[in-house]
Amino acid sequence: MKDVFNFLDNLLNINDTLVLANSGGPDSMCLFHVLISLKEKYNLKIICAHVNHNTRKENKSERDFVKKCCEENKIIFEEFTITEYKNNKFTESEGRLKRYNFLEQVVKKYHAKYLMTAHHGDDLMETILMRIVRGSNLKGYLGIPKISKYHNYYLVRPLLFLNKEQIIDYLKANKINYVIDASNENEKYTRNRFRKRVLPELKKEDKNVYLKFLKYSEELERTNNFINKIIDKKIAKIYKDGKIYIDALIKEDEFIVDKILERVIEDIQKEEIFNINDSEFREIKKLLNKGGNKSISLSDNFIARRSYNYLIIEKNKNVKDYEYTLNDEINILNKYIIKVINKSNDTSNNVIRLNSKELSLPLKVRNIKNGDKIKVKNLKGSKKIKDIFIDLKLDPVKRKEYPIVLDKEDRVIWLPGLKKSIFDKEINEKYDIILKYMEE
């Protein structure tokens, strides 16, 4: 325990506020006791955050146990119960996402400097081994760092200096109670198989083998931090507004290409449940060498698509047909706004002036249909809307959802922001309708 206390003594300052994720298990209660022992020394404000994953009948009693411990030690208790899972099925990835979303909310609520979890040396070994077997990237292979910096707080794992046996010895010596999660014995979970079958063999070779894994992890972390400094300098020119600019990306060394793609995927994973395997990653890279507009399906209903010179990784959007009557103002998909205005000096494609006597009212707004054409102002004949979208290199998804203004007879009056029809009037001509277009 000496290394744990030394680590915390070098980390903590007087009047620090920290959040502890506490399940009530032996690891959590060990760290809980350690922090309680330092509370007076540093005048710590400790918030204990407990998540009820709602997967076992024991969850409620575990919650009650943690709350009672907090009351006895005058510690603030915050709790969250997960009431539903996607497809009514628990998955570790969704549980983790919901858990950390809650923990971050608690950190924000109390303006905490640290979020602490009770990951220990055995957890580190299991994580590294699982990722080696499954396949990962440099950041994944380093396992669990002692400290991770986030926007306004630090995620800290003080118990990485200990293995499970040392934690149990500490609990026994200090007569600290804890709860046991029976699911930790179920070998249908990969982590449990590594814990019960692989780690004991490694410990036979060296009882302190977890420290070798810790050293390995720290060496990879230093390497990863150095690479991230390089990526930070490059990515701003390559990844903007959710788009990866392919021409700029493929100028880089293949290693840098991989690291930038990994960074983009990591950013998505912070907000969404999005798992990707090596095969999918290779398929994404293939899109970099293909022209035109291509897309591939990924896990968790995501797609990667190439649209001209940029690559986008996003949720698969199933664009539904829509049609609205235009009376005053319409906001389509919280993105495209078309409204009637009284006056404007704007002569761009964002404003159109119409004479109602030349139209069949009411006007309507919908997305594209097969065969839609427009008689473009100052051009002879008609042109297909689809061809205009292609000529303007409009993103394929945007083509499906983009608003078109028509009259009652289905004549296309306006492609807002893009093209005006022969129905458009100059400022010095006669008109009684003015429409304005904006994108949010």
What is the compact description of this entry?
With 440 residues, the chain is of the alpha+beta class. It contains 14 helices and 22 strands.
Structure description:
This protein has 440 residues and is α+β, with helices and mostly antiparallel strands. It has three domains: 2-220, HUPs (Rossmann fold, 3-Layer(aba) Sandwich), CATH 3.40.50.620; 241-315, Uridine Diphospho-n-acetylenolpyruvylglucosamine Reductase, domain 3 (2-Layer Sandwich); 323-439, Phenylalanyl-tRNA Synthetase, Chain B, domain 3. The chain has helices spanning 2-11, 26-42, 59-72, 92-110, 121-134, 138-141, 164-173, 190-205, 209-238, 246-249, 254-271, 278-287, 385-391, 396-401; strands at residues 17-21, 45-52, 76-81, 114-116, 147-149, 154-156, 239-240, 243-245, 293-297, 302-307, 310-315, 323-325, 329-332, 336-341, 351-354, 364-366, 373-374, 383-384, 404-406, 412-415, 419-420, 433-439. Strand 5 (147-149) and strand 6 form a beta hairpin. The two termini are 55 Å apart. The mean pLDDT is 93.
Which outline best applies? elongated
List the total number of helices.
Answer: 14
N/C terminus separation: 55 Å
CATH superfamily of the largest domain: HUPs
Features:
single chain, 440 residues, alpha+beta, Rossmann fold, Uridine Diphospho-n-acetylenolpyruvylglucosamine Reductase, domain 3, Phenylalanyl-tRNA Synthetase, Chain B, domain 3, 3 domains, five-stranded antiparallel beta sheet, 14 helices, 22 strands
